[in-house]
Amino acid sequence: MSIISDDNDFQTQSTHKKNPVVKPEAIEFDKNFENSIRPKSFDTYIGQSALKDTLKITIEAAKRREKPLDHLLFYGPPGLGKTTLAGVIAQEMGVEIKITSAPALERPRDIIGILMSLQGGEILFIDEIHRLNKVAEEILYPAMEDFYLDMTTGKSQTVKTLRVPLPKFTLIGATTKAGELSGPLRDRFGIIHRLEFYTDKELSQVIKRTAGILEIEIDEKGALAIARRSRGTPRIANRLIKRVSDYALVKHDGKITEQIANESLDILKIDEFGLDTTDRSLLKLIIEKYDGGPVGIETIAAAIGEDARTIEDVCEPFLLQAGLLQRTPRGRKVSPETYRHLGYKTKNANSAQQSLF
Ligand code: ADP
User: Fold this and answer.
1) How confident is the model over 242-266, as pLDDT tens digits?
2) Helix, strand or coil for residue 175?
3) Residue 31 in domain
4) Atom 5 in ligand 1: which residue has the minimum CA distance?
5) How many angstroms does the Cα of residue 234 sit away from the middle of ligand 1?
6) Average pLDDT, the chain
7) Which of 1, 13, 38 to mutate to test the pocket of ligand 1 (most atoms within 8 A of CB)?
8) Is the pTM of this model over 0.85?
9) N or C: more exposed end of the chain, with fewer CB within 10 A?
10) Domain count, the chain
């Protein structure tokens, strides 16, 4: 797998941006850690069974026809395994994958360069594909549809258009916001799939697999305790197991049990729903300052000091799925369940019965 840009690594990227003094070695370590635990085949890729079944058939058919796969679009919240799945598909097809992300394709020459570097059958993975600019999109259209590039040479009156053929390749796009993809781009994907949040059982399998690779001792209940607080997301499960393992090592004998997992996750302020301090500040703000909502996303973002895009992409999908937040045309609202979960008496109560902060 060759990585053209590592922008696809949400963890690494955000750490780097928020903390410019992070040493390059630390980023390298994170990347190596990610790569060491990333499943490489369908057998080790846990969950998403309906999607895997469909893909297996598509891959088998493409192999029998000796043709590249149709272009694929995966959408869903960050950390659910879109990049990993693209790598698995490449492995199963027996082809190389080149990984990049839309923000790295700012200039026409970026996308042209990548397209021209592809070999027949190879996979090009573009993360955050909804962020592609118009020019890059227009270069992609004929490349995806008929495998050629329209290049212009010369100036003003002497300008000529050159049609450059490309090898047949497969584009795999990933996005957290399928709705923001332009219609013409979306229409050029033959296969479009949504990745689902994982069940606690599936996440506990992810956790046990990662523990095995990292040589961390964990029992069944310990794995399930971490899974329950991982917001249905393998990336979070993998992050938490490292934190819990540190705690188990320093405070106990290194083995992760249910009690140790719960103790350390309490210390990390991750509650039994998997909500962290940011999630709780967001929900608490809507309850206390806006009587449960609705309130606009920009107002929420400014009040809790978070970026609106991060809230929409990272916090909201799980809160919506868990029924703790609702999206309405007039803004975000909380549900009665949110009041109960955060320890408020009723919808109209203005003060917290018990604060979770
Ligand atoms: P996305 O591209 O959707 O943001 P990634 O593919 O980068 O997510 O996955 C994040 C992390 O979660 C990876 O390190 C990978 O090891 C792990 N992971 C994702 N999906 C699975 C899965 N189905 N089984 C096991 N681990 C997974």
Assistant:
1) 999 999 999 999 999 999 999 999 9
2) strand
3) no
4) 81
5) 6
6) 89
7) 38
8) yes
9) C
10) 3
Chain segment 60-95, per-residue pLDDT in tens: 999 999 999 999 999 999 999 999 999 999 999 999
Q: Tokens representing 237?
A: 């499960």
Q: Phi, psi (5° rounding) for residue 239?
A: -70, -45
User: Does 183 share its domain with 300?
Assistant: no
Q: What is the CATH number of the domain that holds 84?
A: 3.40.50.300
Identify the domain boundary among 171, 194, 217: 194
**β 325-328/331-334 pair status:** antiparallel
Q: Is residue 25 part of a domain?
A: no
Same domain flag for 331 and 241 = no
AA letter at 322: A
Q: How far is the CA of 43 from the centre of ligand 1 (A)?
A: 14
Beta bridge partners of 326: 333
Residue 199: the pLDDT is: 97
227 and 189 in a single domain? The answer is: no
Q: Which three-class secondary structure state does DSSP give residue 117?
A: helix
Ligand 1 pocket, residues with Cβ under 6 angstroms: 10, 34, 37-39, 45-48, 78-84, 174, 206, 234-235, 238
Q: How far apart are CA 113 and CA 166, in angstroms?
A: 11
Catalytic residues: 82-83, 127, 176, 235
* Tokens (6 digits) for 327: 């999206």
